[in-house]
Amino acid sequence: MTLTLNINGQDHPLDIDPDTPLLWALRDNLGLTGTKYGCGIGQCGACTVHIDGQAVRSCAMPVEACAAQRVTTIEALSPDRSHAIQRAWIEGQVPQCGYCQSGMIMAAVALLKENPKPSDADIDAAITNLCRCGTYPRVRAAIKAAAG
Ligand code: FES
């Protein structure tokens, strides 16, 4: 089946099974490997992207459900890393191993869009992504720094 996905502002017609998780279309069909595979069951958040501006776990989203929507991946956030969140992440040296961090960043951007001045409790409620290195205190601090 041919489906057209709008990814990072460009239409991509793909010959793909409509049940394919968006994560695999991004990584395998389009080479957008900034979106990571962690659990594959919508639990860890490593695969977080935006669909029409909302944070979504792409491993649990069939491509058919995304066909009429705008998908944004970490690659389109800011190619020169000048987005406020990316600057805060770099300045705060948030990542340890780094594997989960693109998903964390996408979740953080969606949070700040909805809530420009989140409290610690707001951050903890919104950012449910898992990090095996335990970078949560630095994630929280960087979100607050980006919020200004
Ligand atoms: Fe999608 Fe874990 S890989 S939530």
UniProtKB/TrEMBL annotation:
It comes from the Bacteria. Signal peptide: none annotated. Keywords: 2Fe-2S, Iron, Iron-sulfur, Metal-binding, Oxidoreductase. It comes from Niveispirillum lacus. PANTHER family: BLR6218 PROTEIN, OXIDOREDUCTASE WITH IRON-SULFUR SUBUNIT. This is (2Fe-2S)-binding protein. One of its GO terms (molecular function) is oxidoreductase activity. The keyword Iron-sulfur applies. The keyword Oxidoreductase applies. Transmembrane segments: none annotated. It holds the Pfam family Fer2_2. InterPro entries: 2Fe-2S-bd, 2Fe-2S-bd_dom_sf, 2Fe-2S_ferredoxin-like_sf, 2Fe-2S_ferredoxin-type, 2Fe2S_fd_BS, Beta-grasp_dom_sf, Diverse_Oxidoreductases. Residues 1-77 form the 2Fe-2S ferredoxin-type domain.
